[in-house]
């Protein structure tokens, strides 16, 4: 993968679209994640870097993210350190003031260890604006790997309110996942055939500051997360996720820090109570 070409593509796209005066809230973004594993028998620590763009043009939205990650592993049981490259694409279109259609595509470009390398995910979703405070989004995902596939249904509710000068948004998320052909390989054999998990998020902003908290409850494995911008393609069954974050707007820049705690089981070896501590740093430039 040519990193310089991807970065050039982001910058070039922004210049092309920026010539039109109808663009609103478009942005370039970059992020870094640092992960520390405890009680894992496969991974020690990991890091990832991502770069992307979110372009609004008339009724359309174009979004892409490229992510590269590396993990230091225990050898044995693994033969080498882990290296991953992923691509996330999304197209959205406002059908009218109350209906929003979005299409997603994910490609695991390379994974030098897992059988999910070169896997692809596709999604179609529809958002409904019930009123100025409440919106509903329904998204259907299909993730295709060489040895198995995953069907996923997401239901998301957003409710906004304002308390004096503080804006608050409550989000509830429900995910149902169905794994097909999971018993044909050791990678997914110990996973459940289906999962039902739910999450809640609260985001607040005041002047140039904003903060958020969130949690997921219930088990999940091989899930698409973060509105199609994350995919869990390793054989780990998560049963806890907690997150807290804070950010600030400085001129056209948005700085964010997020801490995430996760607990999981490494499925192939049935290694339970693996904990993952994640620090995520994000920088956005809005134009």
What can you tell me about this protein's structure?
- The protein is mainly beta.
- Helix content is 6%, strand content 67%.
- The protein is built from one helix and 16 strands.
- The protein has one helix at 3-18; strands spanning 27-38, 43-57, 60-73, 82-94, 99-111, 120-129, 134-144, 149-163, 166-180, 194-206, 209-220, 224-225, 230-231, 236-250, 253-266, 271-286.
- Strands 1-2-3-4-5-6-7-8-9-10-11-14-15-16 form a 14-stranded antiparallel β-barrel. A two-stranded antiparallel sheet has the order 12-13.
- A hairpin with a 4-residue loop joins strand 4 (82-94) and strand 5 (99-111).
- The longest helix is centred in the first third of the chain and has 16 residues, at 3-18.
- The relative contact order is 0.14.
- Residues 1-23 have low confidence and may be disordered.
Features:
16 strands; 67% strand; 287 residues; mainly beta
Secondary-structure map:
Elements: H1 3-18, E1 27-38, E2 43-57, E3 60-73, E4 82-94, E5 99-111, E6 120-129, E7 134-144, E8 149-163, E9 166-180, E10 194-206, E11 209-220, E12 224-225, E13 230-231, E14 236-250, E15 253-266, E16 271-286
Antiparallel strand pairs: 1-2, 1-16, 2-3, 3-4, 4-5, 5-6, 6-7, 7-8, 8-9, 9-10, 10-11, 11-14, 12-13, 14-15, 15-16
């Amino acid at each position: 993968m040519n990193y310089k070409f991807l970065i050039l593509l982001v910058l070039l796209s922004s210049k092309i679209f920026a010539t039109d005066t109808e663009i609103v809230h478009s942005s370039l973004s970059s992020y870094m994640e640092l992960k520390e594993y405890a009680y894992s028998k496969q991974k020690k620590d990991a890091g990832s870097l991502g770069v992307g763009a979110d372009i609004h043009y008339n009724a359309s939205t174009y979004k892409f993210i490229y992510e590269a990650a590396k993990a230091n592993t225990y050898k044995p049981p693994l033969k080498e350190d882990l290296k991953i490259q992923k691509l996330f694409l999304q197209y959205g279109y406002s059908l009218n003031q109350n209906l929003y259609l979005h299409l997603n595509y994910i490609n695991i470009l390379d994974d030098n260890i897992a059988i999910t390398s070169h896997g692809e995910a596709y999604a179609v979703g529809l958002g409904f604006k019930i009123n100025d405070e409440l919106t509903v989004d329904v998204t259907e995902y299909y993730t295709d790997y060489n040895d198995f596939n995953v069907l996923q249904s997401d239901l998301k509710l957003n409710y906004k309110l304002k308390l004096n000068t503080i804006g608050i948004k409550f989000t509830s998320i429900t995910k149902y996942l169905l794994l097909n052909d999971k018993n044909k390989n050791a990678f997914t054999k110990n996973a459940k055939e289906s999962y039902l998990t739910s999450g809640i998020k609260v985001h607040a902003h005041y002047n140039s500051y904003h903060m958020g908290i969130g949690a997921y409850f219930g088990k999940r494995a091989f899930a698409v997360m973060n509105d199609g911008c994350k995919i869990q393609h390793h054989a780990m069954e998560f049963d806890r996720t907690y997150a807290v974050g804070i950010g600030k707007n400085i001129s056209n820049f948005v700085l964010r820090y997020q801490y995430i705690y996760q607990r999981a089981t490494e499925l192939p070896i049935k290694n339970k109570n693996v904990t993952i501590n994640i620090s995520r740093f994000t920088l956005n430039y809005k134009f």
